[in-house]
Structures are given as C-alpha cells and as structure tokens.
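pipeline stage [seq->struct] | target=AraC-type DNA-binding protein | organism=Nonomuraea maritima | residues=339
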Amino acid sequence: MSTDGLPVADRFEVWREHVLRTVEPVTITCDDPARFTARFSTMVLGPVRISAHTVSGLAGQRTPRLIRRSDPETFQLVLTMRGRATLVQDQRVAELGPSDLTLYHTSRPYRWLAGGHESSDALLMSFPGALLPFARHQVERLTATAFSGRDHIGGLLANALTTLADDRTTYRGPDAVRLGTVLMDLVTALLAHRLDAESVVSPASARRTLLMRIQAYIERDLTNPRLSPAAIAAAHNISIRTLHRLFTTENVTVAAWIRARRLDRCRRDLADPALAGRPVHATAARWGFPDAAGFTRAFRAAYGLNPVDYRAVHGRSNGNFSGPDELSRAAPLRATAPR
C-alpha cells in the first residue's frame, strides 16, 4: 500500500484507516498532513507477521479505551532502519536510531513518535506471546527497552528482518511457517539473554540459534586462511564434535559449508562488472583458494563452467544470487499469506 498515487488531501486519512484495519486501533496524528507520505507492505509467516513501514513524521497513541475496543494481544518487535523514533510504554522510554530494536505489547497503553520532520523506515514483527517460552510478565519487563541490532543476536535478528524486507520471493505453507520459526528462535535468544533466562529456551531453539550464529561467524571470516572447524569451535566455546553435530541438520560438513560459501563469494565477484579487471587467481586467493588449479576444478564442479567462462557469461549486474547462508540467516519479505 502506498499513498503516492492518492490526492494529497486524502493521503494521511487513507493511511490512518489502513493502519487501524491491519495493525491495531491507535490514535494517529500528523503535524503536516499536506506533506504526509507513506508506504506499507506485509507478509505472513504462520503466526508471525512482518510489515515494512515508510512514513513521514507522525505520532501514535494506544489508550485503554482503544485496547478495550480491540486487542490482538500480540507483541510487536520494531526495527528502526532509517530516521529516529521514540516509544513509551510501562513508564519506560526507548529512544531509537537506525539499527535499534524495541518491543511493545498491544494490551498495554503506549505512545509512539516517528520521523519528526523527516521520513523514517521501520520493520514490525508481530507475534503472539504464546510463541515465547517466558511468562508474559517477564517479557513485559523489556517493553520500551532499546536493543542493538548491530551485533550479536540482535544483529542476526536485524539482518534476518532486512533480508526479508528486500526479498521478492513468495513463501507459503510449511516454508512460511519454518521462516517464522527461525525469526522466533532469534527473538527468544535475544530476550533470554536480557532476562538472564537462557535455561528456559528449548534445546531445539538453542541449537538453531547457535547454528545461525556460527554460520554468520563463518560468513564474516571467509577471507581468513586459518578459518577451520577447530577455530570455529573455539570461538564459540564448543567442542569440534558438537560443531559437526550441529551441521548434520544441514546435511553438509563444516568444511563443505565453508568451501561452498567461499565459492559463492568468488562467483559473486566474477559476476560483478566493477571487478572485471581483477585476475581470477586474485579473486580465488582473496576468498581462501591459494591454489589456482584446485580452485578451477572446484568452481567448475559447483557451477558447470570454469571461472573465466563464468565471468564471460555472467559478468553483468546479476551478482545478487542468494546462497545458502541467506536462507539460514532468516529469509525473505514480500510474501503473501499462506493459502
């Protein structure tokens, strides 16, 4: 939904009514409706709903009267992507900038200020509290609390949500539910750390979250020639045996995962017109393949062409192929509700 094609005088009111129908009843005000613009998109991942919002400056308030009128009884996790915002709930104030996360509950009054004189971008993740392994009163201790979305579990969650926002794939049925589970694992880990309640997280959720942390670590360290199962296990305070056991769910060994990710980075560079002048052997060495002949064999086995031929065929603006890391880190937005 976008206000771009609407008459200027109608834009704010149309968008306000849209929010009331699709999110929850809330009083929304705008200092300058004549300059108001907004865009809104949503996807459903089982019981989890993700929505992307771009709005110019506005303020919102959910009062006890509006809660009695209609209450979806859900938590809303907010990721601010651009601009600034303020959330007030339960006598706490969260001041948010880009890549900050916060949480609120629709059953309790809140106030929200977004954008100021500039537009802002945010992603909202809506989910029922029953999906969390914590009592509601525990989670409500963290409403209107700012979390960093730049590192650790918060960084994994923010990356997962932004990947969803940028994707154009439609996910339905079991695939959509699985992606919602991935997101809930990350939310659970984020809140458990802040609540000091890791012990209540299910073993399966903890394993999935640890695997995502390890895959993100591998992705960041692909250029390191000393990257190995032993180094990865040591960095995460687990045994090598535990590390290998985690990757059995991916039906691949740790070494094969690293190799596949390095090959994909080489493939992307070879398809990038801006890197057309870089020798193939330099690209291979950058991503952990010091032996040119061995790299050529591995690349041909993975993609059906040798690196030189691949560059000749694909060396244009198509270097955005999604590798296995992107699905594991969470996956994609622009989806429709499962049918």
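stage status: PASS
auto-comment: The chain has two domains: 8-197, 202-332. The chain has 13 helices and eleven strands.
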